[in-house]
Specification:
CATH architecture of the largest domain: 3-Layer(aba) Sandwich
CATH topology of the largest domain: Aminopeptidase
CATH superfamily of the largest domain: Zn peptidases
Order of helices and strands: HHHEEEEEHHEHEEEEEEEHEHEEHEHEH
Shape: elongated
Bound molecules: zinc ion
Distance between the termini: 47 Å
Structural class: alpha/beta
CATH class of the largest domain: Alpha Beta
Radius of gyration: 25 Å
Length: 426
């Protein structure tokens, strides 16, 4: 009996311990959210098959289910607007002398490329000298349809008028840019006048004669997109807001067969915001300041969602006491970087002290201002804002392999606890 009661006592202590630290036990939830956000249904959260739109519905439903409040100017948790975007909804194929290349890995379509229906083109390999004498080259190419093959490594050495200008003078039907480094995809809000492909240099055969290309492309001048916004009311300072933000969009689809899941970028930050919503929605964790959760759209298209928010805020920006933006939060074996850490040293020191006392992350580093995620336009509008991203070897940035199973999740728990402590300590 005594032994039993001792056991019972121990169990109570354990339960108490775990309830205090329950915010560190949520990794299965986070992984499930990342799996969901990276599934084909959401198409890489882009602008083909309404991928980003579907994701926004899923996330707003989560805001609602969690009991977040809405603002009058973001009814149903949405702040909608329109942006231009170039997309690749259908067929994408590219072959050299009849040999088909693998889209997404062997080559990428330049995000601003024009479309082209299936065409076979003779190859003109432009070396450095070709551009030195490009006016002469125009003569014998005039009237011909051809693909101009250029070397990305040589581009910087081309002198005189810009390369784009020279290429325009040459009127190629297709440009193939050869890269020795990693191919990194993105999203474009503009469209070129010609078809443009980036491919791996080591796959280009020196004796290539023809290429065959087929790119289905669609440009939207005004594509509808939405930020997602909701909040938990603070117990002491309901009129003053802490913002926790992340972008939920990614690169979307490059044709029917290829999409960019964006597990680390930024299903991970999105899932961490969802995790924080779960935490701060519990009555026992009610914050002193109101906490506003924002999931931005269009980050990959150039910080479009957060820029729009700062231009059309749904309440005055000076009511934001502090903003923390999260991006790339699932691979932190080497710790965490704090962008704007040297702009706001007092806040950085606070973070550092929490981390030293609690041993949450291996290391916290700081850097200055950078327009590399959604904190940027807020700090440009004099809002105190930091951007956190985890540090660790992760070679799949903006490629098709940034998918579930790749992130290590090292540092996830530590970063989550650090953010919660930091926000509670405001
Ligand atoms: Zn990102």
């Amino acid at each position: 009996m005594k032994k039993e009661s001792k056991k019972y006592y121990l169990l109570v202590i354990c339960l108490f311990f775990f309830s205090n630290f329950s915010y560190s036990q949520n990794l299965p939830f986070v992984k499930k959210q990342i799996d969901t956000l990276c599934s084909p249904y959401f198409g890489g959260r882009g602008y083909v098959d309404s991928g980003a739109y579907r994701a926004s519905n899923y996330l707003a439903a989560y805001f609602k289910k969690s009991g977040l409040k809405t603002f009058p100017l973001a009814e149903d948790y949405f702040q909608g607007f329109k942006m231009p975007v170039n997309t690749f909804p259908g067929k994408i194929s590219f072959s050299i002398d009849g040999k088909l290349l693998k889209s997404g890995t062997d080559y990428l379509v330049d995000p601003s490329s024009a479309g082209i229906s299936q065409t076979t083109l003779q190859v003109v390999r432009a070396d450095k000298n070709f551009f030195e004498n490009y006016r002469n080259e125009i003569d014998h190419l005039r009237g011909e349809k051809y693909a101009l093959i250029i070397d990305a490594d040589e581009i910087e050495s081309y002198k005189g008028p810009t390369l784009a200008h020279k290429i325009n003078m040459l009127h190629p039907t297709l440009v193939v840019e050869l890269h020795s480094g990693k191919l990194i995809w993105s999203v474009s809000r503009t469209k070129l006048k010609k078809a443009y492909i980036w491919m791996k240099k080591d796959l280009w055969p020196a004796d290539a004669k023809t290429v065959t290309v087929d790119l289905d492309e669609k440009f939207y001048k005004r594509y509808p997109v939405r930020n997602i916004i909701g909040y938990v009311e603070g117990s002491k300072h309901p009129d003053s807001f802490l913002f926790l933000t992340a972008h939920y969009d990614h690169l979307g689809r490059m044709g029917k067969d290829v999409y960019f899941p964006g597990a680390n970028d930024n299903a991970s930050g999105t899932a961490m915001v969802m995790d924080a919503i779960q935490y701060f929605s519990k009555p026992e964790n009610k914050p002193e300041y109101s906490i506003c959760f924002v999931l931005f759209t269009g980050e990959e298209a150039g910080l479009v969602g957060s820029k729009h928010y700062t231009e059309k805020p749904i309440f005055p920006l000076d009511k934001i006491k502090f903003l923390v933006n999260l991006d790339l939060m699932s691979n932190g074996q080497d710790g965490m970087m704090v962008v704007n850490g040297s702009v706001f040293p007092e806040y950085f020191d606070k973070l550092k002290k929490i981390n030293t006392d609690q041993h949450y992350l291996k290391e916290i580093k700081k850097r200055g201002k950078a327009a590399n995620s959604d904190h940027y336009y807020f700090s440009e509008h004099n809002v105190n804002a930091l951007f956190f991203y985890l540090l660790g070897e992760y070679p799949w940035y903006h490629d098709v392999n940034d998918k579930p199973g790749k992130p290590s999740f090292a540092g996830y728990d530590g970063a989550f606890k650090l953010i919660v402590d930091f926000m509670k300590g405001m």
